[in-house]
Amino acid sequence: MLHIVAYDICSPRRLRHVAKACKDYGFRVEKSVFECDLEQKHFDALWKRLQAVIDPDEDALIAYRICSSCESSIQSAGILKRPEKPIAYIF
Fold this sequence. Notes:
The chain is of the alpha+beta class.
């Protein structure tokens, strides 16, 4: 299932940790936006890891689940290049 993860992190240290976690599970499509095509158990692991890093009083973190029928209608323009479907993930 495709998830879009976006964040706004105040601390540079926490920002690096959040970005690294997102890179481990997905593809950056914008500076603070990632596409993560994951089974639910892997998304849950990512979400738990992200929540352990952020400060809920200062930072913002959001994820949207995109169903397969909606995924086919995603549009992009400009220099943005959406990732292709992965063959396999190695965790």
